[in-house]
């Protein structure tokens, strides 16, 4: 990409390869203030703001006369804001948040009731303020009680769940600073396998996410991912350490949050004997949730009502908070854009060259691949800008990045005269505040994983987002000052979007969900309370699959193997492989960890090569990595070579066109899994530290490894048919080996594959060569 114009502000076009992209008149002049016409609580606020009601603060909030606003809010709520303990440096900012004026009301409701559904606009202060309003409440003190005959301590901590690790950790850091006990970076307890290890450092706020825990002594507010709280439920079904659980961003409707809601409902509606009769308070929060549905779900049935002594407290109350702190201007494109990447580049540079600093950009793209190629193009083009134009610093933000790499995007830039451009997937869509961001660019799409239960196949396709997602994305601007959101789609397109996304539990494989329920002692999974129940067919399929994996026995009861599988933060089939690897027959835990680390570290550790020339050039370097047994052995060889490399790992990756980020992440996962396997006694002693000399795996050992993977993947096998196509043993579908596989184009007796995806075609990915007899042997094994 090269520049065309000469000075900042006067750029009208940019060149991408041979393409000239005009910047002129690209974005619609017509602007309006977020939120849109979505029938959500947000636009009730907007409607109210148009009608000159108190929600007028949406547009007035940048007005300096904030005192008046606060006074208005107090009049609206009747609340007398009072300062809760905290760092005075943050107090003034906190007082500006719409939530601040509602604190007495929120406290008042929760003194009377056990469940509150709280709806407030993005950036109104829900995630950061609500736990601070509550942790000093009388009901939040730990109490010694008799529960089922034993004396136990109940309560004392508020849990607040987040859909993603990055939200949980960044919010914990922010709130810890606001309350005046900042979490120190060195305070982490590393991986404790989910155990709530307390550290020796004191503090009020902590967090617990997969592979990272930081729980100071005296923690009263604990941020954690939904998955982490589910893990805690396996160990303590009554969640005794908590006085309240705040479920944040419930609109995301991940499988985990749906399961969690079911378990919380059971605690809420149950007899509470396991908590010595002490209720667990629940606060359910979102900016864009279906409030009525949630309210109805948490309302106790008549039968459950008969279990409770306090009917009034078990009723569900709903509170809508009006207003957001800063306005966000939303702009749509006047017509549909033919090329999203091109449109995004134009918008980035239009902002960069026309909007003054400071003001960082957060752009939403669909996935890692798109982010990495866009980063390259932005950097290339930025290098050609005149010297008097501000510099740019591009930072990626996607789920497979390590936590440290994700946190990079949240740090203020040290370099002067530089604009930060964060390229993110939808992991930055809810809950997070990326400091410095004033501009959001929304491509209107997200990659969605869908499972076709009938075919046992997943598809991962970029699809249009919902109105709820678009509102959340726009809400990432305007958090520290007024902001702008540029939607790369027309207003008509926006109006045609679905209000909300389909809950994950209705579109994903429910294998993991059913295993979690079983591990938590839910025998009758079909009658477990869920906001939306998946089809009976997909639950039954999951049960059959779990039986095949030996996670449940003939009676449908969870086995010891199943319990252990549920404790590992990997999919059920991979968990089964890991457990098999520890048996004397296979004895290959370290190698299996290496392979799992590579396949869970990102899209693919190998960059895809477009031209024949590039392929020839790189294959020269890659040939020491490729294994004729297939992709799993190729991954193993690659990570073992990488781990043995002690001179220049970056250069090593460059030559082989290996994604260095994914490789680093693989090493990180490898470390965590080794730790977990030691704790779960799958490994007898710690492995020797890196670098170890590279030792190629013998063909015999390779066979053992592939057979070990078959213990988790007998259903993902295919046989070569007479017409030279591969036909799956389960379901009898024709699959082709994906071009990314080292076995692409090869015809063998049988194959095993770890992924089965539908893109343009029905593809098998992560493929290994097997013999038909091995499938029968694996099925017979005990
Ligand atoms: N990490 C952070 N750095 C700087 N400011 C922050 C940070 N986290 C929160 N804030 C400030 O606090 C405000 C409220 O954030 P909070 O996350 O509590 O809002 P919210 O109502 O939960 O929003 P959402 O629904 O979008 O998650 C933000 O708009 C921002 O001004």
TrEMBL record:
Superkingdom of origin: Eukaryota
Protein name: RNA helicase
Keywords for this protein: ATP-binding, Helicase, Hydrolase, Nucleotide-binding
Domain Helicase ATP-binding: from-to ranges: 107-307
Compositionally biased spans, kind Polar residues: 36-52
PROSITE patterns: DEAH_ATP_HELICASE, HELICASE_ATP_BIND_1, HELICASE_CTER
Broad class of enzyme this protein falls into: hydrolase
GO BP annotations, alphabetical order: maturation of SSU-rRNA from tricistronic rRNA transcript (SSU-rRNA, 5.8S rRNA, LSU-rRNA); positive regulation of transcription by RNA polymerase I
Reaction(s) the record says it catalyses: ATP + H2O = ADP + phosphate + H(+)
Keyword Hydrolase: yes
An example molecular function term from Gene Ontology annotations: hydrolase activity
GO cellular component terms given for this protein: small-subunit processome
Composition bias type Basic and acidic residues, residue spans: 57-66
Helicase C-terminal domain span: 339-521
Region named Disordered: 25-87
EC number of this enzyme: 3.6.4.13
Record carries keyword Secreted: no
Entry-linked SMART domains: DEXDc (SM00487), HA2 (SM00847), HELICc (SM00490)
Source species taxonomy: Eukaryota, Fungi, Dikarya, Ascomycota, Pezizomycotina
């Amino acid at each position: 990409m090269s520049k065309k114009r000469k000075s900042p502000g006067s750029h009208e076009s940019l060149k991408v390869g041979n393409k000239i992209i005009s910047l002129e008149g690209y974005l619609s002049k017509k602007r309006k203030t977020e939120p849109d016409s979505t029938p959500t609580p947000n636009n009730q606020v907007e409607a109210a703001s148009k009608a000159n009601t108190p929600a007028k603060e949406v547009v007035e909030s940048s007005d300096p006369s904030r005192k008046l606003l606060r006074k208005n809010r107090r009049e609206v709520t009747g609340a007398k804001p009072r300062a809760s303990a905290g760092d005075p440096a943050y107090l003034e900012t906190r007082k500006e948040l719409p939530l601040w004026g509602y604190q007495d009301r929120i406290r008042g409701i929760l003194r009377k009731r056990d469940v509150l559904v709280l709806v407030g606009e993005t950036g109104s202060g829900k995630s950061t303020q609500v736990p601070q309003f509550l942790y000093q409440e009388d009901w939040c003190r730990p109490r010694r009680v008799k529960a089922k005959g034993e004396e136990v301590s109940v309560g004392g901590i508020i849990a607040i769940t987040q859909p993603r690790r990055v939200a949980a950790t960044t919010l914990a850091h922010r709130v810890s600073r606001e309350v005046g006990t900042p979490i120190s970076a060195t305070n982490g307890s590393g991986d404790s396998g989910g155990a709530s290890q307390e550290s020796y450092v004191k503090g009020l706020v902590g967090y617990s996410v997969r592979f990272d825990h930081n729980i100071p002594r005296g923690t009263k507010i604990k941020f954690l991912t939904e998955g982490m709280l589910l893990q805690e439920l396996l160990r303590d079904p009554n969640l005794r350490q908590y006085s309240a659980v705040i479920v944040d961003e419930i609109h995301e409707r991940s499988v985990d949050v749906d399961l969690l809601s079911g378990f919380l409902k059971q605690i809420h509606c149950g007899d509470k004997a396991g908590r010595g009769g002490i209720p667990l308070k629940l606060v359910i929060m979102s900016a864009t949730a279906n409030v009525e549905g949630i309210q109805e779900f948490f309302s106790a049935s008549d039968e459950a009502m008969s279990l409770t002594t306090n009917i009034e407290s078990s009723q569900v109350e709903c509170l809508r908070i009006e207003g957001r702190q800063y306005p966000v201007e939303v702009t749509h494109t006047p017509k549909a854009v033919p090329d999203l990447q091109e449109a995004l580049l134009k918008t980035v540079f239009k902002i960069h060259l026309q909007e003054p600093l400071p003001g960082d950009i957060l752009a939403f793209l669909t996935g890692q691949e798109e982010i990495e190629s866009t980063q390259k193009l932005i950097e290339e083009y930025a290098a050609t800008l005149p010297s008097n134009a501000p510099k740019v610093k591009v930072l990626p933000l996607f789920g497979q990045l390590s936590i440290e790499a994700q946190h990079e995007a949240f740090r203020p830039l040290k370099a002067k005269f530089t604009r930060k451009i964060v390229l993110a997937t939808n992991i930055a869509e809810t809950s997070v505040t990326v400091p410095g961001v004033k501009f959001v660019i929304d491509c209107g799409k997200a990659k969605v994983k869908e499972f076709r239960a009938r075919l046992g196949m997943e598809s991962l396709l970029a699809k249009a987002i919902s109105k709820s997602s678009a509102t959340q994305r726009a809400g990432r601007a305007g958090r520290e000052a007024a902001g702008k959101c540029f939607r790369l789609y027309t207003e008509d397109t926006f109006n045609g979007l679905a209000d909300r996304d389909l809950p994950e539990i209705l579109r994903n494989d429910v294998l993991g969900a059913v295993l979690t329920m079983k591990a938590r002692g839910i025998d009758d999974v079909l009658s477990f309370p869920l906001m939306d129940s998946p089809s009976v067919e997909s639950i039954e399929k999951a049960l059959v699959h779990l039986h095949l994996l030996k996670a449940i026995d003939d009676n449908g009861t969870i086995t010891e193997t199943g319990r252990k599988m549920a404790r590992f933060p990997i999919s059920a089939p991979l968990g089964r492989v890991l457990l098999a690897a520890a048996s004397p027959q296979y004895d290959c835990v370290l190698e299996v960890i290496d392979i799992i680390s590579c396949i869970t570290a990102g899209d693919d550790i190998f960059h895809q090569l477009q031209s024949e020339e590039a392929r020839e050039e790189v294959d020269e370097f890659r040939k020491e990595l490729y294994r004729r047994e297939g992709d799993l052995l190729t991954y193993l060889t690659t990570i073992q070579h990488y781990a043995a490399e002690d001179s220049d790992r970056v250069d090593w990756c460059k030559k082989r066109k290996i994604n260095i980020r994914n490789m680093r992440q693989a090493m990180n996962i490898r470390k965590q899994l080794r730790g977990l396997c030691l704790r779960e006694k799958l490994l007898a002693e710690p492995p020797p530290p890196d670098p170890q000399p590279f030792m190629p795996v013998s063909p015999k050992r390779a066979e053992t490894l592939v057979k070990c993977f078959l213990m988790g993947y007998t259903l993902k096998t295919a046989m070569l048919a007479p017409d030279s196509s591969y036909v799956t043993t389960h379901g009898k579908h024709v699959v082709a080996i994906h071009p990314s596989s080292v076995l692409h184009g090869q015809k063998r007796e049988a194959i095993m594959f770890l992924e089965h995806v539908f893109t343009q075609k029905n593809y098998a990915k992560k493929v290994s060569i097997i013999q038909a007899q091995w499938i029968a042997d694996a099925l017979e094994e005990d």
